[in-house]
Structures are given as C-alpha cells and as structure tokens.
Amino acid sequence: MAKMGRPKKEINQEQFEKLCNIQCTENEIADFFECSVDTINNWCKETYDMTFSDTYKKYASKGKMSLRRMQFKLAEKNASMAIFLGKQYLGQKDVIENNVNSNGIIDDLVGALNNAKKIK
Fold first, then answer.
1. Mean of the pLDDT values across residues 73-84?
2. Is the pLDDT of residue 120 over 60?
3. Residues 48, 11: contact at Cβ < 8 Å?
C-alpha cells in the first residue's frame, strides 16, 4: 500500500545553517522555507539528531564569531567601535567627574538668613 499524505518538505541544509548564522528566528526560518515551525524542528531531529534549539545554538554561535570579527576589524578604523568594544570586553567606562562646590551654597544660605534677620 502506498504511503499517503503530504510529500516531505525539502529543506536546504546549507541555507538553513546560513540563516542560523545570521540569527534568524525559528519562525523566520520556517517562513523562508514556507513550512511550519514543527516541520523545521522535525527536520532538525532527522538531520542533526538535535532539536531546533540545540541546532540553532551551534550555528548561531558561528554567526556571532563572524560578527565579532567584523567589529574588531572595524575598530581599527573607527574610534567609536574601538570605544564600544573596550567597554564591552575590557571593562572600560566613561568617567564623569561631579565636582560640587558646597561653599557657594552655604554662603548663599548664610546670606539669606542674615537678610531675613535684618528684615525682622
């Protein structure tokens, strides 16, 4: 007896991995392949012997490495990127100095009190 049902959805493994590399969500990947999220998850189990979540983590990390490499390269020419990366990876931060001169405030208060006493 012939197997009935919908034909199996073909998902290109290379395209799938590239979509994970650029951080596409499971819904976006399903939309790209014009199938359901369940189909993507089942395909991952058959192809990688892992759930979508585990497969995604593996290939998304490669995308993060690529992005980080591009950021470091950009930092060679772009001071803003160098500052950003310094803050993210080296614990650097902007130092804002707050110098409050309380003498002026105290002098103003003393003067106001003296004036109030003179008025009485």
1. 91
2. no
3. no
Amino acid, res. 74: L
Half-sphere exposure of 46 (CA within 13 A, CB side): 11
The rounded distance, in Å, linking the Cα atoms of 89 and 92 is 8
Q: Are 61 and 35 in contact (CB under 8 A)?
A: no
Q: Tell me the one-letter amino acid at 31.
A: D
Q: What is the pLDDT of residue 118?
A: 65
Residue 113's SS3 state is helix
Q: What is the pLDDT of residues 53-68, one digit of tens each?
A: 999 999 998 888 888 8
Residue among 55, 51, 54 at smallest CA distance from 13: 55
Give the residue carrying structure tokens 């979540």: 53
Alpha-carbon gap, residue 20 to 58, rounded angstroms = 9
Helix, strand, coil percentages (3-state) for the chain, rounded to 5, are 70, 0, 30
